[in-house]
Amino acid sequence: MARTIKKEIPVFFAADEGCCPFLAVALQSLADNASGENLYSVKILHTDISDENRRRLAEYGRGNIDIEFVDLGHYVPRVRERLRAGDQGFLTAYFKMFIPRLYPQYDRAVYLDSDVVILDDIADLYDMDLGDELVAAAPDDIIQFNEVFQTYAEKVVGVADYHRYFNAGVMLMNLQQLRKFRFQEKFLFLMDRVRFEVAKDQDYLNRLCKGRVKLIDRVWNRMPLEDPKIKVEDVKLVHYNLAYKPWHFEDILYKEFFWMYAQETEYFDRIQEIRESYTEEDRRRDEEAHMRLKKLAKKEADCVGDDRRYRR
What we know:
The chain has 312 residues and is an alpha/beta fold. 37% of the residues lie in helices and 16% in strands.
């Protein structure tokens, strides 16, 4: 008897060639936790993934998991020309902004960064009640535990309360409402007039969507930061954000989940090579990059007046 598929779950990733080994781990974890009752339509937005990596990644599709590679090379010049020379390497991060207009057939979709491991059925995130909100996402842990970034989120990005500043690496997007909001048009308009340099795409999303964000539990976007309020058995998705990479460092919280799924992929040997080739110089460079980001956030916040005392 043929299996009945209840619904289609659109899941989007944005990736480049260097992300492929880690994207494979994310795809493996998605597949291992997917329900047989749904069709998972995975779209990988890119401009430079090689034929070989596309072939290898496509093998993570199976039965009810369909994987499609979407080359946005023809679509991104309008963003590329707005970027400064030093920002060109962040082009992939902006691909998520185009999803509402590129896929008018979908009313909603899940967007995920490639540095995640999914520990539960992603359909449970997709099924969350959105109402008329533009996105559903979790508060950003990096912001919540760092005073410099808290001030930056409120004074520079403009969110009313840093607790409402969300991480854009895991989102349920209300594509229908984003289209009604004319999101892409407003994003391109804002990009021409405001330069966000700290979190770039994430800052734009928080600025544009503020007041229309459904905050979800951080178990759906758990970063490797100690928090006694969250039990490991409750975590549904781990996001190895910024420098918290288990393929670079040994002391990363929740590293066991990454390596559990990595061992199931054919990229396992390559990931181990990446870990072994990560040097002290690389570590120093990454630490300095984080400090530069923090200094930039403080400098930008210092350049903006502060009227938060008037808020009710």
